[in-house]
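tool=predict chain=A
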Amino acid sequence: MEHERLEFSKEPPDSEIAQALIGELDADLLTRYPGQWIHGLHPQDVVDPDFIFVVARLGGEPVACGALRKLETDVAEVKRMFVRGAFRKRGFSRQVLQFLESTAQSCGYRTLKLETGTLQPEANGLYESSGYKPIPPFGEYVGNPFSICFEKRLEPVQEIV
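tool=predict ok
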């Protein structure tokens, strides 16, 4: 069976479609973690020129999203990974992650970090099978009993001579 390919576009995180996808992600997280704080976007992400938010479309329909937040010169954080419920289990989360990794490499990032949760086994499986290694909680995730953090070293982009 041929894999369905997503089309990616960079969007402002405060655009209508980005806000719709983020709203669905937050609702999903609140059902998994009732009463817990959601580690979403920061207000400054909207105006940060280094912040990258991508929307993945299938046949023009928005089905998934993800983002990159700069942490250090060569370190970024994967944020807001989400696939709409009707489109899950089709490999789309892996395509979003691969797109974010490729984008990060082209931006000069050497390491990606991310946080997911103890009640998201599908996300943990995706990250582990994609080469991410568990790390101690970092930044705002320190002390959160539901947080699981991962890191992956990226290969530098090879320039063609």
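The two ends are 37 Å apart (CA to CA). Strands lie at 7-10, 52-58, 61-72, 75-83, 111-117, 133-135, 147-153.
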